[in-house]
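Problem 3 from the worked examples.
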Amino acid sequence: MGGRRRIVTTNLVIAEVHSLLVRTSADTGVRFLDRLYSDPRHEVIWASRDLERAAVDRWLRPFLKVRFSLTDAVSFEVMRLQGVKRAFSYDRHFVAAGFEMVPE
């Protein structure tokens, strides 16, 4: 995996990570946001109402037994729309949705 790659995420994922980090300290949460927003490799896609509705229709309704979160579903829909096949994640829901996880 040579070279620097673009990292695509959503504001919902950022909110979840920030929420976990502020449990350690508020400063840690703010430093995370500062680094993320200053790194040009990171593209943050904001979950619009239309994107959320598409995620509900494509990922939440058909997969009720899997119990994806809204954050997962929006991430999957963004990946689908952008043609992204691999996710840096430890969440096995990405595999259940048909994506590859890095690390495996």
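Problem 4, a separate protein:
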Amino acid sequence: MKQFNHIVLLLVAIATFTACKKDSISNNEEIKPVTVSVKVAYDTENASYNFTTEKATVKITNTSTTTVYNAVSDANGIATFKNISPGVYNLSVSQSITAADYNSKAGTNVTDPVVYNASLSNQAFSADGQFNISLTTGRVGDFVIKQIYYAGSDTRDGALFRDQFFEVYNNSNKTLYADSLYFAQVMAVSSSAASVDLTKPYYLPSGQYDWTKAVGMSNANANTGYFYAKSLFMIPGTGKQYPLDPGKSIIIAATALNHKAPYVGVTGNAITVNKPELTVDLSGADFEVYLGDRPDVNPLASDLDVPGVTNVTVIDNGSGRDLIIDNLGRDGLVIFKTTADVKALPKYPTPDVAQVISTTKLYIQIPLSYVIDAVGLQHAVTTSRIPKRLPDAVDAGETFVPGGSYSSQSVIRKVSKTINGRIVLKDTNNSSNDFGSLLKADPSKSASSFIN
């Protein structure tokens, strides 16, 4: 009997080993490396120019491991990635066309290279295959967003988010006017990309909203030709009331106060910080957002109407109690100009809304053709990053502060070159490439970040 038991145990062990070996083989088959190619082309608007697709820079990023692979396209516009791990990847492509080549084919007179960009999000690489991607170029505007301070400062010792601001810069060689310059925050999915249920019909494969599914929508270009404003403001003026010389900036603040110093809030209570060095002095801001005179808003105690500072015109404050940029980076800013009546533009609910009732929030649909500049922000933590919220035509990448929320850091556009003492900022319509960061936000209008 004892010998029989030994035999049984031996057979069990052999069976277990065999099963484990099969499982190991199965697992090895599951993680077999794949070879993926990316075919680069130009969008329909630019295809007729016959620009080269050779030597485009192609980057793929594994969304789980954050591993980055880089390649350059060949003469056929194909970049190949051999023996990479299966998984979900984000793709980005950049191609620079010389000014001479662009001018000769497009009939323009630009002086700098023109950069084309493209991106694809959440692409599954599970087997060998090819992905097609279309390059596009956005408007290279005279105004650019130079700096965004969205992170805020320490929750206990700083000013939280009440010290937020952003900076707009004249990147041209002529005087521009800030009068009637609109700025907006972008409405989009702000959940982490990993948490979006892609089986729902109102999401795109990227995890972002499919606006073609919004109630009342009949525009096939709803996702590619427009953005949707979560909030919308405008700098007032007579048309030439607020000139901005080449190489100069304006600061738009939530509240144009020196946040380093104590002040009395709307409720009559003192508002102070324990460590003034963590926050900023916005008493020199050119414009501020004030919501205290709106009957539908319960403003923050810190939202004062500062004497001598011009209030922007509020078109739609969204649900905000002040200008509040998401301090985690789940946001996007757009500046634009138009002679159209923006209040008359179409408005839609988010695509996950099945029925519109009186209390349903609607978002203004704004054509991308109006856009001068746009900057997509992103979460600093890779695993918490949200689906890309802006179309490639206005921003093919995103930027973030490495320190994350309440770090006192800001994102700032890099310097491209200097012409006769005038700083020209980098503007390729790709915030991933165009922006760096400051360890401490700087509203002095003299801050710079040089290309590295």
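Solution to problem 4. The first strand starts at residue 34 and ends at 42. The CA atoms of residues 263 and 269 lie 8 Å apart.
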